[in-house]
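Morning!

This is the sequence you dropped in the shared folder:
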Amino acid sequence: MNKPKRKHNRLKNYDYSQAGYYFITICTKDKKNPFWKQSVGEPIGRQLSNLQLSKIGILVDKSINNITNNF
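The structure's back. C-alpha coordinates below.
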Protein backbone atom coordinates (compact mmCIF):
# COMPACT_ATOMS: atom_id res chain seq x y z
CA MET A 1 0.00 0.00 0.00
CA ASN A 2 1.43 3.36 -1.02
CA LYS A 3 1.35 5.98 1.70
CA PRO A 4 0.78 9.62 0.73
CA LYS A 5 3.86 11.84 0.63
CA ARG A 6 4.00 13.96 3.77
CA LYS A 7 4.84 17.64 3.81
CA HIS A 8 7.90 18.77 5.74
CA ASN A 9 6.83 20.29 9.04
CA ARG A 10 10.09 22.11 9.79
CA LEU A 11 11.40 25.36 8.40
CA LYS A 12 14.44 25.11 6.17
CA ASN A 13 17.59 26.72 7.58
CA TYR A 14 16.04 27.27 11.02
CA ASP A 15 18.16 26.32 14.03
CA TYR A 16 15.72 24.48 16.31
CA SER A 17 18.39 24.15 19.02
CA GLN A 18 18.09 27.87 19.81
CA ALA A 19 15.52 29.38 22.17
CA GLY A 20 12.35 30.52 20.45
CA TYR A 21 8.60 30.22 20.23
CA TYR A 22 6.94 27.10 18.93
CA PHE A 23 3.39 26.23 17.93
CA ILE A 24 2.20 23.00 19.51
CA THR A 25 -0.77 21.06 18.15
CA ILE A 26 -2.48 18.60 20.46
CA CYS A 27 -5.03 16.24 18.91
CA THR A 28 -7.73 14.65 21.04
CA LYS A 29 -10.10 11.76 20.45
CA ASP A 30 -13.32 12.87 18.76
CA LYS A 31 -12.06 16.50 18.90
CA LYS A 32 -13.15 16.73 22.53
CA ASN A 33 -11.79 19.47 24.77
CA PRO A 34 -10.44 18.07 28.04
CA PHE A 35 -8.12 21.03 28.70
CA TRP A 36 -10.42 23.78 29.99
CA LYS A 37 -13.94 24.22 31.24
CA GLN A 38 -16.15 25.59 28.48
CA SER A 39 -19.06 27.92 29.11
CA VAL A 40 -22.09 26.80 27.12
CA GLY A 41 -23.37 29.46 24.73
CA GLU A 42 -20.49 31.88 25.30
CA PRO A 43 -18.25 32.68 22.29
CA ILE A 44 -14.79 31.08 22.51
CA GLY A 45 -13.14 34.52 22.17
CA ARG A 46 -14.60 35.64 25.49
CA GLN A 47 -13.71 32.36 27.15
CA LEU A 48 -10.02 32.71 26.26
CA SER A 49 -9.64 35.88 28.33
CA ASN A 50 -10.93 34.11 31.45
CA LEU A 51 -9.83 30.51 30.90
CA GLN A 52 -10.19 27.98 33.72
CA LEU A 53 -8.00 24.96 33.10
CA SER A 54 -9.28 21.49 33.96
CA LYS A 55 -7.11 19.03 35.92
CA ILE A 56 -5.76 17.66 32.64
CA GLY A 57 -5.24 21.22 31.36
CA ILE A 58 -3.18 22.11 34.43
CA LEU A 59 -1.03 19.00 33.93
CA VAL A 60 -0.46 19.82 30.24
CA ASP A 61 0.31 23.47 31.06
CA LYS A 62 2.92 22.44 33.65
CA SER A 63 4.45 19.90 31.25
CA ILE A 64 4.72 22.40 28.39
CA ASN A 65 6.24 25.05 30.66
CA ASN A 66 8.73 22.47 31.94
CA ILE A 67 10.02 21.48 28.47
CA THR A 68 13.02 23.83 28.64
CA ASN A 69 14.19 22.12 31.84
CA ASN A 70 14.36 18.77 30.06
CA PHE A 71 15.89 19.68 26.70
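Headline: Residues 32-70 form one domain.

More detail when I'm at my desk.
O.
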